[in-house]
Design goal:
- This protein has 445 residues and is of the alpha/beta class.
- It has 17 helices and 13 strands.
- Strand 10, helix 16 and strand 11 form a beta-alpha-beta unit.
- The chain binds beta-D-glucopyranose.
- The site of beta-D-glucopyranose has 11 residues, from loops.
Length: 445
């Protein structure tokens, strides 16, 4: 039987949540509107027109929820700070009540002997800043720096583990190019600017934390997916390579001082040109203590001439008749090993933490029990690969499960359940799933 002690005593086991997905209390206690509050008002953007207004009501229930983190045996609690709770207008006046809320969450963690990991940005930009151009505005760095400085000064004495951004590829592409996430934009120039500002922000945020927080451990997270070419044909291999650049290399390489990937790829030429990237190698670099990698699935790619720029398309797991989750994401633990290997191969990566991994299934509550066998199997397989990676000497030092409890899953609304704890969104009743109990026995003796 797999057990956490096989990973050594110092391995960090954690669980992750995010402000916009869990907190609720969206218009109370001085909080300003975020882009997700606004986006959810647009008909048809979110399944069942769901709103993030109440979510899991973590704002009022954090004490009980942290007791659950403790009960399941996790040592680390990763959560994010809602920018518009601290600065309702994004800049300017500080909301003291918002600042106090995170002090209370942090104090509660420390009291319970749980290590708090703060994520500074998990996708919920203040709407007031979006009105000024959001991530595509070159003022973004100035705004973000203010926000980070406030957080560092407030919480830096108590919190030593900091994550600057959550998945910049996620929020720039889905939010500023594909229009599927807030703020729902679909514009190439906006996308290019958002990428560059996110790359600069991840490094600048790191420098600010380093300056204000003594003995900080600083990381940032990257989404990643192993990209597999559908065939040996030159066209498919080239398509997979382009996708790999976008999904896996675009944000980490500038952080490591390598600037944006240089490749025979029109999109990258546009990016280099639009951002005058050659001027920024140093400003885009930061010496992170660890990188967070967030992996859910690999993708299989073939050439497609009708898709602009990338000229590639993925072949769904269902079509390929391989196992997949309720969101259609391929389940493939060997690929998890290989993606860790890929990121560990960068010379300047000092340490890797898997800051998110988990699975969505159709959970059914039957007589007070959620027997989510599929999710348990998923974790068993992925953790087995993780153990192999660790044993093979890859520099992986922690793993955080996504997620503590079912929550607001962005444009999927409340129907896509990833939690170790089931949430009835009408009553806010929490029920530990069998996968939650599985984690408890995996983590405790
Ligand atoms: C995000 C989470 C999200 C999860 C599952 C990650 O990309 O960071 O916020 O809920 O994936 O989709």
């Amino acid at each position: 039987m797999l057990h956490s002690n096989q990973f050594g005593n110092n391995f960090l086991w954690g669980v992750t949540i995010a402000a916009a997905q869990n907190e609720g209390a969206y218009n109370a206690y001085g909080r300003g509107t975020s882009i997700w509050d606004q986006f959810s008002k647009r008909k048809g953007k979110i399944k069942n027109n769901a709103k993030p207004y109440i979510a899991c009501d973590f704002y009022h229930r954090y004490k009980d929820d942290l007791l659950l983190v403790k009960a399941l045996g996790f040592k680390v609690f990763r959560f994010s700070i809602s920018w518009s709770r601290i600065l309702p207008e994004g800049v300017g006046k500080i909301n003291k009540e918002g600042v106090l809320f995170y002090h209370k969450v942090i104090d509660e963690c420390l009291q319970l002997n749980i290590i708090p990991f703060i994520t500074l940005y998990h996708w919920d930009l203040p709407q007031a800043l979006e009105n000024e151009g959001g991530w595509a505005s070159h003022q973004l760095i100035k705004w973000f720096s203010k926000f980070v400085t406030i957080c560092a000064e407030e919480y830096g004495d108590k919190v030593k583990n900091w994550i600057i951004l959550n998945e910049p590829m996620g929020f720039t592409s889905l939010g500023y190019m594909l229009g599927k996430h807030a703020p729902g934009k679909t514009n190439m120039v906006t996308f290019l600017s958002a990428i560059h500002n996110a790359v600069l922000a991840q490094a600048e945020g790191g420098r600010i934390i380093r300056h204000y927080v003594a003995n900080a451990t600083i990381g940032t997270t990257f989404s990643c997916s192993e990209v597999i070419a559908n065939s040996d044909k030159q066209q498919d291999i080239a398509a997979a390579n382009r996708m790999d650049i976008l999904l896996n290399r675009l944000f980490i390489e500038p952080a490591l001082g390598m600037n944006y990937p240089n490749a025979d790829f029109a999109f990258m030429d546009k990016l280099h040109l639009h951002t005058k990237a050659w001027k920024y190698t140093e400003r885009m670099r930061f010496d992170f203590d660890f990188i967070g990698i967030q992996n859910y699935f690999p993708i299989t790619i073939k050439h497609s001439s009708i898709i602009p720029f990338i000229q590639a398309t993925d072949i769904k797991a269902k079509t390929r008749k391989v196992p997949y989750t309720a969101l259609g994401w391929e389940i493939n633990a060997d690929s998890f090993y290989r993606i860790i290997q890929k990121f560990a191969a960068y010379e300047n990566v000092k340490s890797i933490i898997i800051t998110e991994n988990g699975a969505c299934f159709k959970d059914e509550l039957k007589q007070g029990i959620i027997d989510d066998k599929d999710r348990i199997l998923y974790f068993e397989k992925y953790l087995n690969s993780l153990l192999n990676a660790k044993m093979d000497g890859l520099k992986v030092d922690g793993y955080f499960a996504w997620t503590l409890m079912d929550n607001f899953e962005w444009n999927e609304g409340y129907n896509a359940r990833f939690g170790l704890i089931y949430v009835d969104f009408l009553t806010q009743l929490r029920t530990i799933k069998n996968s939650g109990y599985w984690w408890r026995s995996f983590l405790t003796n």
